[in-house]
Amino acid sequence: MDQEIKQFKLTTDDEIICEVLDWNEDGDVTIRHAYRIVHVEDPDKGYRYYYLRPFMVFQEDQLQILNSGHIVCEALPSTGILEYFYTAIQESKKILETRKNNKSPEIKDTKDILNEYAKELEEFKKALDKFDIKSDDEDDFIATVTASVNKNYH
Q1: What is d(CA 10, CA 88) in angstroms, rounded to the nearest whole number?
Q2: Is 111 within a domain?
Q3: Do 69 and 90 belong to one domain?
Q4: 135: which DSSP letter?
Q5: Is the pTM of this model over 0.70?
Q6: Is residue 76 within 8 Å of 7, Cβ to Cβ?
Q7: CA 134 → CA 47, 125, 127, 140, distances in Å?
Q8: Which residues contact 95 (CB under 8 A, 6 or more apart)?
Q9: Distance CA 39, CA 149 (A)
Q10: Which of 2, 15, 25, 126 has its CB 3.0 to 4.6 Å from that of 37, i.e. a possible disulfide?
Q11: Are 9 and 73 in contact (CB under 8 A)?
Q12: Across-strand partners of 66?
């Protein structure tokens, strides 16, 4: 592989893994596929968990410029993290393609939920029309609705 993959520790205490495309003389590093390495410990079980998250959201396949003045440490990533890195790139490409085709399940789920809320709101408005509410005061409104709901209609 012709890629230069690096792992950086930044002054912000973030740790990232990315493909380095260019180091320029001004101290800027052109990178792509940058992922933040998230580290979580479970001291009760003695486990450490690591996972990758995009360093910048919605920038999965875009070039990014990193100021080298913010790099505290540079290393070659281990084989284990490289496997996660390549898997994360493939997953990000799938998400990017889905987003380009506007078939994101998250968006569809949100649209469906909003449509359901809109239907429920319309039903609620129709139910409220049955009440004789003459005040714009919220407390009066709540009292009127509560009193109307608590009536027995036998």
Answers
A1: 21
A2: yes
A3: yes
A4: -
A5: no
A6: yes
A7: 62, 15, 16, 9
A8: 60, 104
A9: 52
A10: 15
A11: yes
A12: 29
Euclidean distance between the first and the last CA atom of the chain, given in angstroms as a whole number: 80
Whole domain around residue 132: which residue ranges? 105-149
Instruction: List alpha helices for 13-104, DSSP H.
Output: 79-100
Among residues 40, 22, 39, the alpha carbon closest in space to that of 31 is found at 22
Phi, psi (deg, nearest 5) at residue 102: 55, 40
Per-residue pLDDT tens over the stretch 102-124: 655 555 567 777 778 778 877 77
Tokens read off for 25: 């003389």
84 and 33 within one domain: yes
Domain shared by 81 and 116, yes or no: no
Beta strand residue intervals within the chain, DSSP E = 4-10, 15-23, 28-42, 47-54, 64-67, 71-75
Q: 127 burial class (0-12, 13-18, 19+ CB within 10 angstroms)?
A: exposed
Q: How many residues does the chain have?
A: 154
Distance, in Å, from the CA atom of 55 to the CA atom of 32, rounded to the nearest integer, reads 10
